[in-house]
């Protein structure tokens, strides 16, 4: 999505026409499992969202710390795309 998680229906339609299947954003803007213009939303409820910039600025130890926090909760790791295909099976 464009910077700032700002998009409109036209953005979604173009994304779907270009072959995208999932839209990942904040839970408030993209409630997990909701469909819109052919895309399935994946909110950040179960996601560690970060950008490469954060790793550059804070170092690898920052990411390692984030991953350890989640691992302690007996959580599996996957890509957002894998979450989307799991949701698609449920819908």
Walk me through the structure.
The protein is mainly alpha-helical and 91 residues long. The protein has one domain. It is built from 4 helices and 3 strands. The protein has helices at 9-17, 52-58, 60-71, 80-90, and strands at residues 22-24, 35-36, 39-42. Strands 1-3-2 form a 3-stranded mixed beta sheet, with helices on both faces. Helix 2 (52-58) packs across helix 3 (60-71). The radius of gyration is 15 Å and the shape is globular. The two termini are 23 Å apart. The relative contact order is 0.15.
Mean pLDDT over the full residue set:
88
Number of domains: 1
Cα-atom Rg, whole angstroms?
15 Å
Note the quaternary state here.
Answer: single chain
What fraction, in percent, of the residue positions are helical? 40-55%
Task: Please trace the helix and strand order, writing H or E for each element.
Answer: HEEEHHH
Q: Which band does the percent of strand residues land in?
A: 5-15%
Structural class: mainly alpha
Task: State the total count of DSSP E strands.
Answer: 3
N/C terminus separation: 23 Å
Number of helices: 4
Strand count, sense and closure of the main sheet?
3 strands, mixed
User: Which strand order does the major sheet show?
Assistant: 1-3-2
Query: What is the general shape?
Result: globular
Low-confidence stretches: none
SSE blueprint and pairings:
Blueprint: H1 9-17, E1 22-24, E2 35-36, E3 39-42, H2 52-58, H3 60-71, H4 80-90
Parallel strand pairs: 1-3
Antiparallel strand pairs: 2-3
Helix pairs in contact: 2-3
């Amino acid at each position: 999505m464009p910077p700032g998680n700002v998009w409109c229906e036209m953005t979604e339609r173009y994304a779907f026409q270009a072959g995208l299947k999932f839209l990942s954003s904040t839970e408030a803007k993209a409630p997990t499992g909701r469909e819109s213009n052919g895309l399935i939303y994946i909110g950040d409820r179960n996601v560690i969202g970060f950008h490469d910039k954060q790793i550059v600025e804070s170092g690898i130890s920052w990411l390692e710390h984030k991953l350890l926090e989640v691992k302690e909760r007996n959580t599996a790791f996957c890509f957002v795309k894998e979450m989307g295909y799991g949701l698609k099976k449920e819908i």
